[in-house]
Specification:
The structure is a homodimer. Chain A is of the alpha+beta class and about 450 residues long. Chain A folds into two domains: about 280 residues, 3-Layer(aba) Sandwich (Aminopeptidase); about 140 residues, Alpha-Beta Plaits, CATH 3.30.70.360. Chain A has 14 helices and 19 strands. In chain A, the strands form six sheets. Chain A has a six-stranded mixed sheet with strand order 1-2-6-3-7-18, covered by helices on one side. Chain A has a four-stranded antiparallel sheet with strand order 12-14-10-15. A three-stranded antiparallel sheet of chain A has the order 4-5-19. Chains A and B meet through β10, β11, α6, α7 and α10 of A and β10, β11, α6, α7 and α10 of B.
């Protein structure tokens, strides 16, 4: 691994500036979290795009709200650094997940509340609290120094939570505007051990829905049970042919393009702390689901999944109802690893369903390919040093995140290394009720954002 | 089969009385249907019990509303016939199924509407329209003759749609009050061919819920997919071990007590009309579900089922959501045939779940044992003749109905023959939106009810 030591920039003024404005920054984040921006439902998207654009413009960045066929991209560009300083693309997303089930929230999702040192709100961790920290890092550097140490492009998209359907074409079409030497994304949680981490890749994701139909109306189970088709049984039997009880996906060719981790990745995975009993207990689950003997870290980073996100059909109310339902659906996602491609895996899913349950409809709901940056990138050293400077500890190096971000558009379309440096706590409850971010991690995120630019600016471009 | 011909009573005055009051009777049924009585939700039960008791009392029957641990039983007794006339117990239920999904109803479930000669309302067919016809039959006989030709007990229960949990004890405890030579129930639809039928038995039913849990909260499928347990996959794999894709229940011992039909039953089943293509088309289904080569009629009458009534877990809203759900449940029912016993089958289900998915909870939700009366009963002939007199056609003889009624309490606890003579059209959509009864069948039901008592009264007690 390359580890050219970079002369350490002095950041004490910037860190002091951030500490003095801690309460103000928290209140400004709360104001941002109060604005819903639910891409799946189309709630509040235009207003929030204008809000973040206004903030970037206020920092002096050349800012554009760029329309797409979906929700707009917000772009801010700073070109005041030396021509030989690295150009950094900071990516984030201003949309959030739908907040339901609403009744499981202790405080309402769009009325941010601070409890026990955490800010609770939809988007607190995923991703508003994290890209807002990046923007405040720029604000702090500009306030203390009058300039940024790198050239910076901020790209905030509004459709990450619905699969970033516009990102590939947008990046392809704006290759020049997005030109950069590296991409930094702050999203997802820190390592579940609580340690900071640099993540070099992400799993891809493929979302689809299986929809089964029986009669054209619900039937009485006594008059029709055993003679009329039941779409719930159709889905149960179909799904059971797609993944077995040992957790192995049994779709022809599904594992064909799964590459084993490199030696460097294997070493990094082995160094990751992981108290499986503590993890199990933190979930309140009776057991973890690690059926095939692969290690926990390897399963998350380098092994694909098949998750049923939701399955619904028939009666769900109180008591019993002797009905034979007429339709049922299963919403599913698959997490994909190098060198799987979503398009290819989806074709395999469709072929499987055609063969095993030809009457079942397969509805594509979006995909992102996986992405990986080599662990021995020249930018690894300055990013590690920056995290040590801002947070006081060496980050873990994680070959790939379990979750998905559209980083393949950077590593594959732009062809540059992409790093994820998450700021949110491991129990941020993103995509779930009571999403939150620890105030301390939000503040540390602002300092880390500033330090990364400072260390990158002080390092030589490779 | 016994077929002693009974001298034909003249019913022209009674039939004319009914025809003259057709509109009035329809309006009175509509008034009754307007009153919700949803036992599963506890809606309107007391009011409706009082309403039917008031009607029975108005006919001069000795009437009681008898409290139980659940909803009350309504009992009306007429003892004015000759001591050697048969004593007939007329059974029905004044509760109805929950009406959801509400948005699938063309007109609201408790605002009865007449369209194309049908009355649409929850309970129109199941069972208000049918036991109301029985009560109007008593009214017509009493109005025309001043007396009934048989001694009659009317028993209306309020918990049939939740599995009649109180019936066995009630019948055991009131054996004397319920004393009768035979039981007649008008429930369920006529044969799907449109022909009248006499049904000699019912399948039993066992309802239960399977409940699976994973973590103590919903998780992000990217951060946790492949390492945290997914209760939807748990249910899918468990259910797939309980019934295979060919429709065979694979629970140890499930078929042990399934008796093959008798020779007489086999003959009767063979005589039932059944245009499978027309049935399939009427359901709007792409195929019927008759996987094991048994005939359609035999599958419905003499073969058990395992139906998933509802399965729910995780996200069910618009678009996709990459969530790993923390709980899921499947509501199920099994239809049972002679000589299966619900208690024994439930024990086999529990044993199966313990073995295959010990973390899954099995919640008992009620049961009724199956019941069968011999086709060659002495009462078969007068009932057939009565139907011919009232409806002009020979009824089909059906060994057992696909649906379930608590008839085992009569055949097993009281030890008397029990007959089901349905009045509702085959497409009554009971237990589903847009439940309805054809006005013509409701009126024919009143005449049939009167004719059955007249022919039974004219026949010799065996």
């Amino acid at each position: 691994m390359s580890s050219t030591p970079t002369p350490a920039p002095d950041l004490s003024d910037v860190f002091a500036y951030v500490d003095e404005r801690r309460d103000e920054f928290v209140q400004r984040l709360i104001a941002y979290l109060r604005m819903p921006s639910i891409s799946a439902w189309g709630t509040g998207m235009g207003e929030v795009a204008e809000f973040v654009a206004g903030m970037l413009g206020g920092l002096g960045l050349v800012t554009e709200v760029m329309p797409t066929a979906g929700w707009p991209m917000v772009l801010g560009r700073y070109e005041g650094a030396a021509a030989d300083a690295p150009a950094v693309l900071l990516y984030g997303h201003y949309d959030v997940q739908p907040p339901d089930p609403l009744d499981a929230w202790v405080s309402p999702p769009f009325e941010p509340a601070i409890r026990d040192g955490r800010i609770y709100a939809r988007g607190a961790g995923d991703n508003k609290g994290q890209h807002f920290a990046q923007m405040l890092a720029l604000e702090a550097l500009l306030a203390c120094r009058g300039a940024l140490p790198c050239n910076v492009t901020v790209l905030l998209e509004g459709e990450e939570e619905i699969g970033s359907p516009r990102m590939p074409d947008f990046v392809r079409d704006h290759r020049d505007a997005l030109h950069a030497d590296l991409v930094i994304t702050s999203d997802g949680p820190v390592h579940e051990s609580g340690r900071a981490q640099i993540v070099f890749g992400v799993r891809g994701v493929l979302s689809f829905e299986l929809r089964a139909r029986g009669a054209d109306r619900d039937l009485h189970s006594g008059n029709w049970g055993g003679v009329a088709p039941n779409p719930l049984w159709t889905l149960v039997h179909l799904l059971a042919t797609m993944k077995n009880a040992r957790g192995e996906v049994t779709i022809d060719g599904f594992y064909d393009d799964v590459l084993p981790p490199t030696a460097l990745e294997r070493e990094a995975l082995a160094r990751l702390p992981g108290d499986l009993e503590a993890i199990r207990a933190s979930l309140g689950a009776s057991a973890l689901d690690t059926p095939d003997g692969r290690g926990y870290a390897e399963r998350l980073a380098a092994w694909p999944t098949f998750t049923i996100n939701g399955l619904h059909g028939g009666y769900g109310g109180p008591g019993s109802k002797t009905v034979l339902p007429h339709e049922a659906f299963a919403k599913c996602d698959m997490r994909l690893v190098e060198a799987q491609r979503a398009e290819d895996v989806f074709a395999k899913v469709v072929a499987h369903v055609r063969r095993h349950a030809p009457g079942v409809e397969v509805i594509y709901q979006g995909a992102m390919d996986p992405s990986k940056t080599p662990l021995d990138s020249a930018y690894t050293a300055p990013l590690r040093q920056a995290i040590v400077a801002a947070q006081g500890e060496e980050p873990l190096l994680v070959p790939a995140l379990g979750g998905s971000l559209p980083e393949y558009v950077f590593t594959r379309i732009l062809g540059v290394p992409a790093f994820t440096v998450p700021y949110a706590n491991a129990d941020e409850a993103n995509h779930a009720p009571n999403e939150n971010i620890e105030v301390a991690r939000f503040i540390a995120g602002i300092k880390t954002g500033a330090a990364m630019l400072a260390y990158l600016g002080a390092s030589a471009r490779p």
